[in-house]
Amino acid sequence: MADLQSQNYIRRSATTMTPPTTRSNVEEVAKLIDVSRCIGCKACQSACMEWNDLRPEMEEFQGAYENPHDLNPGVWTLMRFAEYENDHGDLEWLIRKDGCMHCEDPGCLKACPAPGAIVQYANGIVDFISDACIGCGYCIKGCPFNIPRVSEKDHKSYKCTLCSDRVAVGLEPACVKTCPTGAIMFGTKADMKDWAEERIEELKERGFENAGLYDPAEVGGTHVMYVLHHADKPSLYSGLPDKPHISAIIGLWKHVLKPVALLGIAFAGIGSLVHAIVSGPMETDEEDEAEARKEMERRGKS
Amino acid sequence: MSRPKDAITRYKAVSRLNHWLTGICFVLLMLSGLAMFHPYFSWLSFLFGSGQWMRAIHPWIGCLLIASFLGLFIQFWHHNLWERRDTEWVKNIDKVIAKKEEELPEVGRNNAGQKGVFWAMALLVPVLFLSGLVIWEYYFGHATSIEAQRIALLIHSAAAIGAILVWIVHVYAALWVKYSMRAMIRGWVTPGWAWKHHRAWFRELAETGSRGPEANPRNRTP
Lengths: 302, 222
Hints:
The complex is a heterodimer of chains A (302) and B (222). Chain A is α+β, with helices and mostly antiparallel strands and 302 residues long.
């Protein structure tokens, strides 16, 4: 689908121009996933498929509650189930709705080489504009959360859009609308943080002393946040990164190699041109031909 | 200018074809690679139809290049073995640039600069090929870990920049030394050219009365 002109971009992949910025009254949005309220019903997965017209291929049973077993180009959100034995020897079933976190500083967008294939709207949503996607998979390398998936059919990369189309016209994302327990909330980022705070207080009163908000600062915060009962150990929740960050290798590539390469190529090119103009070509003249003939005759005689 | 009677063959037809196949592949890879490397060059993707086509065809051209380069390597490696006089040449590169090559030891079939280009490419082409396989999303996207692909991406771009710099030197040298291009397109040089730029090689040929690697008179234009 095309981009949403009703929203300003604040970032656009592989672009050096300033994106349009005239709309100034846009509030940042966020989805808040309260893991402690989730019952693992997968209604959000169904709603996502329903709204986005996704019908992923049926898979074999893999021996776990995840269905399908991983995100794929047709599965933009996925309930992940982890069994955790706490310090009291009790079993906790930690269920996390996985999907794009909509980072404030998106690694996918940073790594993307296709102009305008990944954009970030002023409301914070990070969206893939499939039209411009070239299917190189660099977004996968840029992402700290292992979210984007490239389709083998159309060679385009896909992930959760945070229902950017719904949000643009003032609706909540499909998963939020459908969640039967109110575990998924949507609103301005500020409101969601306030709401999370109340909820975290409740959880602490119930004995989850490490309850907290997952809004990792390493990626500038995210527009999908979790309330976790064990915010001190996010990795308990099916490998949610404790400290997600854009790989330093991507930084080396984008911030060091790119300018060095441009300078190097420019230096070599301009240097050659200057030398050509100042020094002129290395030519062979009649004298050389005569010398060569002499040499050949001399050798011929001996 | 048609080939003079006393011309010396420098590159056989098969070597020339092999060289230009490699060269065309290299230029296409460079253009598409730069387009995927830096937004300044994104517009180059239109040369390949679209970004999608460019992304799809780039690795295949790479496969063709390494096969073609292997042909060059087999034909040319023995011309590029490093000798003591090459070190001397490199140490006095300023004299070469100032066109005072006369003051240096006589040059064999290839000078140290040509050998440097050869061995740099002999190193960089396989590095580019192997790192390129790792980041070939369509076939090998699931073959390695994402972290391995990140490293491969960095190696691939760094090696590519290295190869482009070597290529600029290679192209400029070919343009700078007059009639090098004719040698690589038509295959022959005048005795004076060989005398001036590759005197040791010329003396070897004169010694044996040879006219170069393709000493077949039928290939000569009268």
